[in-house]
Amino acid sequence: MPPTDASTDAKTAPAPVTDEGADPGPGPDSDSEDTLELRLPDEFIALFAEDAKAHVEGTAEEGSTREAASGNPASDDLLDRVGDWGPTTTPVGDFHLVPVRLQRDLPLIARWMNDPAVAAFWELAGPQSATEDHLSTQLGGDGRSVPCLGVLDGTPMSYWEIYRADLDPLARHYPARPHDTGIHLLIGDVANRGRGFGSALLRSVADLVLDKRPSCARVVAEPDLRNTPSVSAFLSAGFRFSAEVGLPAKRAALMVRDRALRDVL
């Protein structure tokens, strides 16, 4: 299930795009001291670029090895190998979903989780171990949820979870279909919040899922029903409001992007 939604203090910065999908734009307190400035060190960006290059160079060889071992290219991956999807062009730049590597990415993601505006939704503020546990559960699982960094023009700026909604507890609360794919996200870079990046990236990632997962007919999300900026962001990204669903921690708006309607909405 996604993180629990929670209201932010009136003096915090505008809510980032989280799993709730909110991208409400600049607000009166956008310069609040409660918002952390999370500028990435140049050395981290350089290291990330080196790792990404090595991954691209090794993808073909690794893919052949996996297929030979399994006899079925997708038999050991419930999400059609998110790590092999590659970059996509979006209205805000070249974007790449890069699966999390714990040793490399944990400090950065933990910093994002401790931003008050992020913590209000994800509830993972505190010691780095809290974020580590959250990531490790997915990384050590069966592949039904893949945590990723969102890399825009070479710079990590967001955190995503691509997951099999039909295999998630969420499926108990709506009429799930086989291969429904869910998304959660947060924008960690303060400079990218409130600029429409959320809607643009939501649309592009949903389309990427549909392009790379031919068995998937729908991309779904479940923002809190009270979070109108979030619902608006999904609507702007080509999702439609499907239903109100009761989840253990919230009343949610089930948002759906249909393959059949992707060229219409």
Describe this entry's structure for a reader.
The protein has 265 residues and is of the alpha+beta class. The chain is globular, with a radius of gyration of 18 Å. The chain is 32% helix and 21% strand. The chain has six helices and eight strands, in the order H-E-E-H-H-H-E-E-E-H-E-H-E-E. It has helices at 42-70, 102-113, 116-122, 128-139, 197-212, 228-236; strands spanning 88-90, 93-99, 145-152, 155-164, 181-187, 218-221, 240-247, 250-258.
Q: How is the topology of this model organized?
A:
Elements: H1 42-70, E1 88-90, E2 93-99, H2 102-113, H3 116-122, H4 128-139, E3 145-152, E4 155-164, E5 181-187, H5 197-212, E6 218-221, H6 228-236, E7 240-247, E8 250-258
Parallel strand pairs: 5-6
Antiparallel strand pairs: 1-2, 2-3, 3-4, 4-5, 6-8, 7-8
Oligomer: single chain
Element order, helices and strands?
Answer: HEEHHHEEEHEHEE
- Strand elements, count: 8
Strand order of the largest sheet: 1-2-3-4-5-6-8-7
User: What fraction strand?
Assistant: 15-25%
Largest sheet: 8 strands, mixed
Shape: globular
Estimated radius of gyration: 18 Å
Structural class: alpha+beta
